[in-house]
Amino acid sequence: MSHISVRLSDAQVITILRQYEEKKISARDAQAKLGLKPSRFFDHVMRFKKDRSSFTIARIDRGRTSRISTEVEARITDELEKEKALIDNPSISIRSYNYSAVHDTLKEKHEIEVSVPTIIDRAKKLGFYIPRSERHLHERIVSTDFVGELVQHDSSHHLFSPFMDEKLYLITSLDDHSRLLLFADLFEEESTWHHIEALSHVCTIYGVPLKYYVDQHSIFRYVKDRDGKRPHHEYTTFTDEVDPQWKAALKRCGSDAIYALSPQAKGKIERPYRWLQDRLVRTAAKEKLTTIDELKEILRNLVAMYNTRWVHSTTKEIPIVRFENALNGCSLFKPFPKDIHTNDLLCLTFTRTTDGYRSLSFDGILFRLPNAQSYMETEIHIAPEKTHDLALFRFWQKGRFVEEHRVTLSQLKKLRF
Questions:
Q1: Angle at CA 160, nearest 5°, toward 213 and 113?
Q2: H or E, element range at 80
Q3: Contact criterion met (CB below 8 Å) for 297 and 116
């Protein structure tokens, strides 16, 4: 059988050892997962308990100190010099070294396996080291008991590449219990529809969560006085009496929103944000990325790494492992409704009244509806079909589907997706 370092990463081994230590699995099960005989397994257990911070399963030659080749030393130095260049560049928002990122770059790009403590040791000797300032310690807890009980959802506006002129929006959704990133994507602008796209991804792939946890951005919540210029604002309309388009779509799917009262209250998703932002900015700067498509590809790789390889600092488990284990117990994700047309759930909705000729106008476009009734309030459900540059309009009267029409996106004057 191949050496354990060939079969498993440090993060995966640490997760299994923690599960054994916390009595979540037996020694026999842990040995089976690791593919180790009892003596070798307990040797790793003892080493893990003795030094958790620098534990690694990298192969070490017995009887002599491991030596790193001149080529590997040169690669480490080269990556540390790149890190220093980022820190010294005032246009890049990086002020510290990330030795884990150096470790991952060496492994993924150069197929060099070197432990993080070894990299830190070389960094100190070569002068590529900045002592960390002391941080206020706080207890991190998991506030939910089941997957699907709460999904954290947010966006951030950031210059992810110093070689691009414009900032981008990173929109993500994260399962609170497992810390699994359910959705992550970059957009050139933030719109209600982009957040509905994120909602669609989560609900159609994983199921509809019990609750969404969001901030008080106007896309997610109507607040009286603050949102006085919104189209649905009336003097007598109070906070939460009107649902913005995103929240209305969320409710149609069978979920609801709760709101964070401060940025600090959204700490669980802020940490993955910082992790993604840091790695994304470092990679973009080192590889001189200039397009959003290049950044999207890096983001997809980082999300896969975060979800499947990294041990979360709070749960002490790899997110996908914790997520899948929880699914076997109890999940509060509900099946996405199948008896309702998707474009009647995940859509933008508006109301207009038909005239005597059973027609109505929306955004300068006249729709003739032979199957509709005259002088009746009509609900319009609108969703884009971007692959064809079209928008689908579905018309309803008193809960009765009337008919549907398609228009080109270029025909829409004010409505944007």
A1: 95
A2: helix 70-88
A3: no
Number of domains the chain is built from: 4
Are 196 and 249 spatial neighbours (Cβ–Cβ below 8 Å)?
Answer: yes
How confident is the chain (417 residues) per 10-residue block, as mean pLDDT? 70 85 83 82 83 72 59 91 87 84 88 89 90 55 81 90 91 93 95 96 96 91 67 50 91 92 58 83 91 95 90 84 87 92 95 96 96 97 91 96 95 90
CA dist 366 to 46, 152, 406, 411, Å? 75, 40, 12, 11
Answer yes or no: do 121 and 223 share one domain: no
Owning domain of residue 363 = 347-411
Let me know whether 161 and 309 are in one domain.
yes
Beta carbons within 8 Å of 255's beta carbon, 6+ residues apart: 203, 208, 209, 210, 211, 212
pLDDT value at residue 226:
61
> 151-158 and 168-175 as β-strands: parallel, antiparallel, unpaired?
antiparallel
DSSP E strand stretches across 53-201 = 151-158, 168-175, 181-187
* Residue 65 confidence (pLDDT): 44
pTM of the shown model: 0.75
3-state helix, strand, coil in the chain (%, to 5): 40, 20, 40
Domain assignment present for residue 378? The answer is: yes
DSSP one-letter code for 372: S
Residues 123, 129, 131, 133, Cα dihedral to 10°: -120
Both 271 and 398 in one domain: the answer is no
